[in-house]
Amino acid sequence: MKKMIKWFLISFFTILIVLIGSVFSFHKFKENKETSLLENNTGKLIDFNGKKINIYSEGQDGETFVFMAGSAVAAPMYELKSLYRHFSKENKIAVVERAGYGYSDVFNDDRDIDVIVEQTREALIKSGNKPPYILVPHSISGIEAIYWAQKYPKEVKVIVALDIGLPSQYIKHPVGFVEKAFMKAGTILSALGFQRLFPSLAYNEAVLEKDFLTSKEKSIFKAISNKQGINNDMEQEMLHSVTNSKKSTALPIPKTTPILFIDAYLDKNSEAAKASLKDYQDFAKKLDVSNVIQIKSKHSIYLYYPTEIYEETQKFLQEKVGKK
Fold first, then answer.
1. How many Cβ atoms sit within 10 Å of the Cβ of residue 20?
2. What are the Cα distances from residue 208, in Å, to 27, 78, 220, 225, 303?
3. pLDDT tens digit string along 238-264?
4. What tens digit of pLDDT does each residue of 57-84 get?
5. What pLDDT, in 10s, does the model give residues 154-195?
């Protein structure tokens, strides 16, 4: 019996090693073939002591809208296109690809919020995008946007918050053991190339189902997403969400910064949806200028309702802020 168990374990681990080796080899083979696709970066790479952050810009006149992706959106320049193309017709837009995202390098640091904000500010200025900005954060980048407005209020004209996580929410609902384990597993599996077998590890397949990217752009989107996968920067960003949020809640709220909260929900009567709406409304009441609207949508609201987001933003700017 012991002999059978021994041989079973030997066979199992041999097969496992062969499988991992095969997947990793295939991943590296595909990465090598996709190298030419990744030479098509139309953004600007900004150097930070040998590491680079990518800023994509388009449009010329009007306000400068800065688009900030949520957690693990591996290719922001492509995934956010359905939204920012509405704004770039009459304004200048910039898509920030934080460390570990898009064409940017993986920095392998602890993703402290002060570091993130300073990198974003410097990269934007060096790429030719001068403040003040209208920030358009999604999900976890809401921490950065709010902290930015707290520290540098003159640089942030308005925040258009797309189903963001408020600092208070991250503190109230910290990343648990299961989420940490999932992120760690995702980081390891991505490094080994398993996203080639399970695409949802690397990207939102809804991006490929829509028509705002060309066939070539979809290929680039997949190549970048498979290259970045879930990496250490994304993992650390999530693991430090509570620490970063506490830095924000320790400061006065950005009372003078107008904020439009766009709350995505699937079931308006669910406890989670009610709690989220209340959190936004409570925060909004403390601001001089604000509004909270709800749109029935999945969390990646920019993929499903880009036109509505654009129209609600224009309405907010004209009626509440006084757009020139």
1. 14
2. 20, 10, 11, 12, 11
3. 999 999 999 999 999 999 999 999 999
4. 999 888 999 999 999 999 999 999 999 9
5. 999 999 999 999 999 999 999 888 888 888 998 999 999 889
Tens-digit pLDDT profile for residues 190-235: 999 889 988 888 999 999 999 999 999 999 999 999 999 999 999 9
Cβ 68 vs Cβ 141: under 8 Å: yes
Q: Quick one: pLDDT at residue 122?
A: 98
Neighbour tally for 240: CB within 10 Å: 20
What's the CA gap between 126 and 119, in Å, rounded?
11
Which backbone phi and psi does 38 adopt, to 5 degrees?
A: -80, 5
What is the pTM for the complete model shown?
0.93
By C-alpha distance, which of 164, 130, 174, 128 is closest to 144? 164
> b vs e for 65-95, b when ≥16 Cβ sit within 10 Å of the residue's Cβ?
bbbbbbbbbbbbbbbbbbbbebbbeebbbbb
Q: What is the Cβ-side half-sphere exposure of residue 121, based on CA atoms within 13 angstroms?
A: 19
d(CA 210, CA 95): 20
Q: What is the spatial distance between Cα 320 and Cα 258, in angstroms, rounded to a whole number?
A: 8
Q: Is the pLDDT of residue 87 over 50?
A: yes
Question: What's the CA gap between 232 and 244, in Å, rounded?
Answer: 17
* Separation of first and last alpha carbons in the chain: 81
**CB proximity list for 273: less than 8 A, separation 6 or greater:** 263, 265, 266, 267
